[in-house]
Amino acid sequence: MKNSERKQKIREELVKRRACKRFNAKVKPRVFNEGDLIWRMRTEAIKDPTQEKLTPNWEGPFIIVENLQNGAYRLETLNEKTILRTWNANHLKFYFSNNFE
User: Fold this and answer.
1) What architecture does CATH give domain 37-94?
2) For 40-83, what is each residue's pLDDT tens digit?
3) Cα torsion angle, 20, 32, 85, 68, sign
4) Does the global pTM surpass 0.85?
5) CB atoms within 10 A of CB 73
């Protein structure tokens, strides 16, 4: 019985490793540079409760001021007003302008 339990644990570990490898192969790390224009995800704390369903999920643009090298960034508005808290790369995405001049 101990031998079959050991084989089962080994099999479970192999399945977990395969799933982890498959997931990590699809993950694209987001790296922003200072001066990049980005969108910031609106969290539930920031959303206006009167505008329920149709509230935009992203706000901005913002400028990356500092890369803290751990996936966190300091932001500022286009008016050069610094945002106090840091934002993780998971809550940011690149801003692309629709102005084609």
Assistant:
1) Roll (2.30)
2) 988 765 666 676 677 788 888 999 999 998 889 999 999 989 98
3) positive
4) no
5) 27
